[in-house]
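Quick one, T. Sequence first:
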Amino acid sequence: MIRYNPLLCLDFYKTAHAEQYPQTLTKMVSYYTPRMTRLEDTDKVTMFGLQAFIKEYLVDAFDLFFFWEDWEDVLAEYKRVLNATINTDGVGEKRLKALHDLGYLPLEIRAVPEGVRTNIKVPQIEISNTHPDFVWLVNSIETMLSCTMWHTQVSAEVGYRYRQIVNEFAERTCDDSVVRARLLGDFSMRGQESVESATKSSAAFCLSFLNTATVPAILWLESNYHCDCAKEPVAFGALSTEHSVMCSNFAMDGDEITHIRRLLTDVYPHQSFSMVSDSYDYWNLVDNILPQLKDEILAHDGCLSVRGDSGDPVEVVTETVFRLWNIFGGTVNSKGFKVLNPHVKALYGDSITPQRCQQIYGILERAGFAINNVALGVGSFSMQCLETMDADHKSYAPYTRDTFGIAVKATYAEDADGKPIMIFKNPKTDTGHFKKSQRGCCRVVKDGDNYACEDGLTWAEAQEDNELRVVFKNGEFIKTYTLDEVRQNLHGGQF
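Structure tokens:
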């Protein structure tokens, strides 16, 4: 959450728009819409993050740094910034004072349910003013809304994509008792551009999986989506070593086996843990050291995840499974696939992509192994960049707001007489053919798993049979969602 007046958390040009609108307008309606997709295999976008945005920005930030602050202090800070930066004395003191006196945001926000995936070009959010004096406020929150939500939604889509891969291979190779939401985890925090971005990105990934290394994601979900990690599965972490641990012990003992034995028998005798194993010679550890510790590993009250985090991920992960099978054996599940002894597993968390995930699972399946023999960690690359193949040439495209062409556009207004005014944009120079906006008010309808939009409506006409439902009005939540509800919406009740 920002730590200052949210009316200063916007683009500079937003500060001047109140005076530019037709002064007879009494109502404005805008829509938040994913207008396109740059992902070849994705034509839908997960709705997620609005509830958190409303709570953190429209409720908490406005209360703490605007409504609950003394008016003179609010005005002084606003004037100080604007007069010093865009050289204007016209800071809209009268309209800001009116809002401050009102004591709440006179906005109504409608949205599709959190967790659903809507089709491209279908509005996910509608914003309108509830008081005729605050037409200008509707689009003033555009900057914050877009900035806050687009990466959260991209990460939700990334998680969903991985989950579909997991579901496909688990259906064929794993017993039904295997928890699919535990087969992948988020390892991305250190590679994100900020703590805030990492937190929201991981939280979005946790809509599809239960494992994360990003601790604040749990706190963020608890704060915004009515959950409690002490009472329900919000997300889980894992005990693990790192290179500083392995290398410092090697420097003291002169070998790796002493430290591993201590981990198994003294440090974590009754707990599962992962062990980074490539600090020196990974295959020597797998082939020579682990067999020497076979008795301790099989007597260990937990699972040792052998983590190789360098080299070719596809080769290292799959070969690790094959070699662990030769050392420790295992069983054959109900679907005829080999499952390692429950005391060992392969783990890899470097350079995993959806493509490599599919390759790893495919090799394991063809070799007769279930995919729950491996745990994969998804890093920041997957959350920030799309990997594509063209004629055997890899290319990379960073995720941005334009990945889904997300924008907030005004499409409808009314004057003092209640006259409907249809607003739209349709640039002739738009070579990408995606910047054309809706026209008028919109009705979003659902047909099975698909959503469609009917526009050109008046405000009154759009009220009936609309999947855009009121979630926030006049400073208060009208409807909220739990984390479990969001997960069930996303996965059709099959989380």
